[in-house]
Amino acid sequence: MSNLPNCPKCQSEYTYEDGSLLICPECAHEWSGNTDAENKEDVKIVRDANGNVLNDGDSVTVIKDLKVKGSSSVIKIGTKVKNIRLIEGDHDIDCKIDSFGAMKLKSEFVKKI
Length: 113
Hints:
Pfam families: YjdM (PF03831), Zn_Ribbon_YjdM (PF08274)
Family: Belongs to the YjdM family.
Shape: elongated
Helix content: under 10%
Order of helices and strands: EEEHEEEEEEEEEE
Largest sheet: 3 strands, antiparallel
Structural class: mainly beta
Strand order of the largest sheet: 1-2-3
Protein name: Alkylphosphonate utilization protein
Domain Protein YjdM C-terminal: 46-112
Distance between the termini: 54 Å
Domain Protein YjdM N-terminal: 4-32
């Protein structure tokens, strides 16, 4: 039995070494043997327009009038958005805006309150 760690994505016990990398044959995930460095790489830091780090649950303010795609509505500058949720992708903030509903925003158009 080898003493290699299980796969961090699927927890498979069938990992193997290939040079300096560990590979999972079940989900094809590759990682270095140093799990602390891998965890730091997976964490994406989202910053607002002023460079402040955003976290889940923060409140932000819109800094520019934003046209709503597929509608004639506009989200006005100064609109407060509470309890944001950070997601992966181009629009990295998922939130609910009063009188608009669920929206996805880009972090470059908001500032932290």
